[in-house]
Amino acid sequence: GCEIGATHVSVLLTDMQGRRLGWHDQPFPVRDNPQGTVDLIIATANRLLETIPRGKDALLSMGVAVPSPIQSEDPDVLSDVIIPSWTGFEGFAHLSSYFGVPVHVDNDANLGALAETWWGVGSSARDFLFIKYGYGIGAGYILDGQVYRGRRGSAGEFGHMPVNPAGPMCVCGLRGCLVTEIGGKALVDQATSLLEKAPTSLLNHVPLSLSAIEAAALDGDAVALSLLSEAFDKLGLALAGWINLMNPEMIVIGGSLTKAGDLMVQRIQAVLNQCSLITSAPAVTIKTSELGPHVIAIGAATLALK
Predict the structure, then answer these.
(1) Which among 249, 302, 251 has a CA at the least distance from the CA of 279?
(2) Could you give the strand order of the β-sheet that contains 137-143, starting from the edge strand earlier in sequence?
(3) Which of 29, 37, 63, 203 could, after both became Cys, cross-link 304 (CB 3.0–4.6 A)?
């Protein structure tokens, strides 16, 4: 199972029962380097396959999670709006040819939802929403036990919900998308600005990143706590609209910020209690994923198994 993130590549090796046999994650400029991304997947997969009997000959199938809507009839075509450098690049066909196995491709948040359905906390629900929250924001919706993709595979583009018409331009071409307000880059930029007036913040003593903000918040840092609290409030407001519309029984949140799970769940629940229909809010359970940083790659491997 391969996860192509906005800024990293992860590869997970599993057996036919979904047991994890090997894992590697590496930062990489995915958005601007499609050929390098596929080359990295091949090199990483080969290293993992060398650790098992029969090596490459034991591989049966591959799944790939991508940060783009996918149309089932043409899965090698990614969005030329969200990741324009990948336009016309047929890298997944090359993966299939190189390894001699089928390669199945889907949106990353959809595969996070699939992983939760098979192996995670979502396995007890027929209708639930999976939120992938990190540098990007996406959603996978399980409707009656199946991933709901919409007419052209664009269902669940939660991060590109416009929430501030006067906000900054997003890579998708819209202005003021949720991801431009509370996505990873936005939080790092906001932290940079706040630190000018907060010389005692823990964030002044570490390289600034999303994980650093999360760690500082868990240590009680006022700047980090303020940033994440406001972000989770805005996330809760966006989720309130989804709950009023779709009335799911569960929301599962995965991605880079799940270590701040208690703070996240408390802030979101408070907003939902204020902004959701009185019949909807009590009916939804909010949980953080227990599959950790592997969740999207697990979903990609699950797609291959499925």
Answers:
(1) 249
(2) 146-148, 137-143, 128-133, 250-255, 285-288
(3) 63
